[in-house]
Design goal:
It contains six helices and four strands, in the order H-H-E-H-E-E-H-H-H-E. It has helices at about 1-25, 40, 65, 95, 110-115, 135-150, and strands spanning about 60, 80-85, 85-90, 150-155. The protein is elongated and about 90 Å long.
């Protein structure tokens, strides 16, 4: 008899739980858990919608050495990032490309290989992306298209490594 009572309770408790849950009004239910903690909301991101107010592309020549002066360390100069030899003005996103920020590793240089690898290591932020596997070249192309739709093109790098100038941009 004792076992029958125990089995009855074991079977009845989940049923009572379900009935109670269905009968609670929405105001009595606990608030939903916030999927993004406050600290996550404040993180800076480069993700943004495409722009329709970009200037016509420029073809000003830059050497890799000249590009270094546009790394954000001098606030009187713009911040430039080069991808596959195309130089983009990312100054308006200095909160992510400026000194000490997450993507500053790419500022003032052509870091095509690192972008293709999705790497923030300084040794990967180099212009020679010729040895990337096909899937990483596709990632690099995605980055190129992302930048092309969001940042003004201000020039071209004239002294890219000899292994990459003939590779197509898209």
């Amino acid at each position: 008899m004792f076992l029958v009572v125990i089995y009855g309770l074991v079977l009845a408790l989940p049923l009572l739980f379900l009935v109670q849950r269905r009968t609670l009004s929405p105001s009595q239910q606990p608030p939903p858990v916030n999927p993004q903690p406050e600290e996550k909301k404040s993180l800076k991101t480069i993700m943004q919608p495409p722009r329709d107010d970009l200037d016509p592309p420029k073809d000003d020549p830059f050497t890799l050495d000249q590009l270094k002066q546009f790394d954000g360390s001098d606030s009187s100069k713009p911040i430039y990032v080069s991808i596959k030899g195309t130089v983009f003005d990312v100054t308006r996103k200095s909160d992510v490309y400026g000194p000490g920020k997450a993507y500053n590793i790419f500022a003032g240089k052509d870091g095509s290989k690192g972008l293709g690898m999705s790497s923030l290591k300084p040794e990967d932020a180099v212009p020679d992306y010729s040895d990337l596997p096909e899937n990483e070249k596709n990632v690099l192309n995605d980055w190129f298209l992302f930048f092309q739709k969001r940042y003004n093109i201000v020039g071209r790098v004239t002294d890219m490594p000899t292994s990459v100038p003939n590779l197509p941009n898209l």
